[in-house]
């Protein structure tokens, strides 16, 4: 299918995207520190495995060619992603304001379904992740290969999502461990959530006014 050099180039690009801080990583860290490792891991499952099933299915069905041919489609995704990031960041800030001014009290629990749903939506509306899957990834498909094009797209998409699952899971576990330490210091938890909320709002505004998806990372 792909020769070694081409595959290494592809995977280097995957790692460059996935190791860069962005909306998905910020949400995982916020959930790990502010909630628990379980909540963070569930968010990761939504971001990678659930969203991956949807995105890869669309990729194989040919949505990649539609998005590549339609700048309007990417503009719509950009604005949806920006609106969601700003909304999610605002919610984090409001959650902080709902506690007393000294930061006492434990973070409000998040249900499993909500953690999965938020993770899925966060990734599904992240134009950088979508641009990688639908615009960049198809460039590594070899029409002359003995493998059918849909099979190549399926394999490359699966590798991308599994890699992201491993990376974000490691971050979730680390953030969850750090969160256990922070749970004894509630004021720091408050400031962490304020910071995460502000970062998400800034990312959303940057995405909304950047003109394309290149200003935001996965």
Write a compact overview of the structure shown:
This protein has 218 residues and is mainly alpha-helical. Helix content is 77%, strand content 0%.
List the helices and strands and how they pair.
Blueprint: H1 4-18, H2 23-34, H3 37-60, H4 63-69, H5 71-97, H6 112-124, H7 127-136, H8 149-182, H9 186-210
Helix pairs in contact: 1-8, 2-3, 2-8, 2-9, 3-6, 3-8, 4-5, 5-9
Number of strands: 0
Overall 3D geometry?
A: globular
Poorly predicted runs are 98-105, 212-216
What is the mean pLDDT?
A: 77
Radius of gyration: 18 Å
Q: How much of the residues is beta strand, in percent?
A: under 5%
**Helix segment tally:** 9
> Helix-strand pattern, N to C?
HHHHHHHHH
Give the end-to-end Cα distance, rounded to a whole number of Å: 26 Å
**What's the number of structural domains?**
1
Task: Give a structural overview.
This protein has 218 residues and is mostly helical. It has one domain (38-211). It has 9 helices and no strands. Helix 2 packs antiparallel against helix 3, helix 2 runs parallel beside helix 8 (149-182) and helix 3 (37-60) runs antiparallel to helix 8 (149-182). The radius of gyration is 18 Å and the shape is globular.
Can you give keywords for this protein?
mainly alpha, 0% strand, globular, disordered C terminus
